[in-house]
Give the backbone structure.
Amino acid sequence: MENTPDTSTYMIAGFAVSFITMGIYIVSLYIRSLNLKRDIETLESMQDEKPKSQK
Amino acid sequence: MQSKPIALKILDVVSIIVLAISTYLALFFAPTELVMGQVQRVFYFHIGTAWVGMLGFIIAAVSGVAYLITKDMRWDRFEVAAVEVSTVFFFLTIVLGSIWARPAWNTWWTWDPRLTTAAVTELIYIAYFMLRQGIDDPEKRARFGAVYTLLGGVSAPITFMVIRLFRTIHPVIVGAANANQEKMSMNGDMKIAFFFALFAFTVIFVDLIWHRIRLGSLEDKVEQLKLKVSM
């Protein structure tokens, strides 16, 4: 009977790539969300200041 | 921005749990495949990510149609979310397939019909974001995006069907193989790991889409505020 080849390295690489890719995507969602919230705060404050400067 | 809904918080926790269970089933519960050895275990994630990848591309096409009919921007946000999450998962499918192919076929990549159509599908959806980046008007961007996903959506069933239509070295998992093809057979424990991976990735997919839709709402709000401030 033929021996089963040792392909553990490829298996580890596969699962590592899966978790790293999903992790990077989740972090990217989080960072983009933080940046957008910061942008909203800045733009809202600019909008509030606008009528004052127009007076 | 509204705080995170309780249902989404629950879905986050459920996603982590099902991913952990699916990993356990793939790594420890499913038996080692005798011909390929341990690398066959990545097959469970390969199929799970391929399933949600193709599902998302189809959902994006349906959302595109819904947008064109209703002109409701919520469909556009849903479409973008489906495409983005699916592009990430489909990238994983291709990479995992390549990792599996190295010991199984003795090459990282070959221009087999399935691999070629999968690569073309991924490139079509990367180009979708380039198209959207190039259009400033939100309505025009949504309209072009909707038509693009509708046309791009054709690539998903083609990729699925190609191994049944052409001679290919890619094994058939779902459905019957023809005389020239290899059919991957699974025993009971392998089937449990396989179907649970499909379920787990579906849950994770829904969770990520929900998060991406919320991000899309923030993007729209920033765009509207920029318009107001500039006027």
